[in-house]
Amino acid sequence: MTNPAPDASRLQWRLLQEADLQSMYGLHLLSIAGMAAQAVKPETREFMLSLLQGRGRVIGAWHEDALVAYGVLQHDLLEHDDPRSLLGLTAAQPVCKLAGAAVDPGWRGQGLQRALIRRRMDCAPRDAALFATAAPCNLPSWHNLLACGFAVRALQYLYGGHARYLLALLPQEQAVSLRPEAEVCVELDNGELPQQQALLMQGWRGTAVGMAAGSLRLVTTVKGR
Ligand SMILES: CC(C)(COP(=O)(O)OP(=O)(O)OC[C@H]1O[C@@H](n2cnc3c(N)ncnc32)[C@H](O)[C@@H]1OP(=O)(O)O)[C@@H](O)C(=O)NCCC(=O)NCCS
């Protein structure tokens, strides 16, 4: 007999405390098991402790006493993490990073990362620009961010040379739907990262999943209409 599908509507949501460190770290390790460093960055226990001690907030979904999903909202950023110049923002612009998420493999496919993204959007300061990084080969990660209104704004090579999209959602884009009209759009796949990077550097944005598996739909933006 097969086990019934887990029921996400019965999860308990709460902010994690320092005492939840082992649950959080254990779920992180479980969630990335078998994934290559090019797809996801392994985090240290110390980094997680620093988040729980005040560098950020961690929202968790619990089933009975087991943590099955979490998402990090980090406000205390290191200098090398600061996306403001890449996003054309001033130094005064508040920024928060969606700095990691994990869903227990047995609970995947139920929209839990999207729920975690929306919960973090709700608890971030209203004037904050939100950003996240995701490997182009980690499709669930950036697909979920796009579905919540984030756009790919840059392609960087981080953590020892691994490709990472920089995705962002700016405060004015959260308040009203001010999506710029698309003049031109193009879809480029995972094997065309240099072409994607060149367009992003010219101001194009990745706003949707493309038709071909793994591809990104990029659009130009129209300003001043
Ligand atoms: C990323 C992660 C949190 C997403 O978990 P989730 O919320 O259950 O996400 P889902 O499995 O429902 O996938 C989300 C979307 O990606 C799509 N997707 C999932 N796996 C896919 C694959 N192999 N190829 C293409 N699309 C895929 C799903 O179809 C879904 O899109 P849809 O609803 O439009 O169909 C989870 O995979 C995880 O814990 N991964 C390891 C840690 C990690 O990578 N964290 C993020 C970076 S820090």
Automatic annotation (TrEMBL):
Pfam families: Acetyltransf_1. Residues 11-171 form the N-acetyltransferase domain. InterPro entries: Acyl_CoA_acyltransferase, GNAT_dom. PROSITE patterns: GNAT. This is N-acetyltransferase domain-containing protein. It comes from Comamonas resistens.
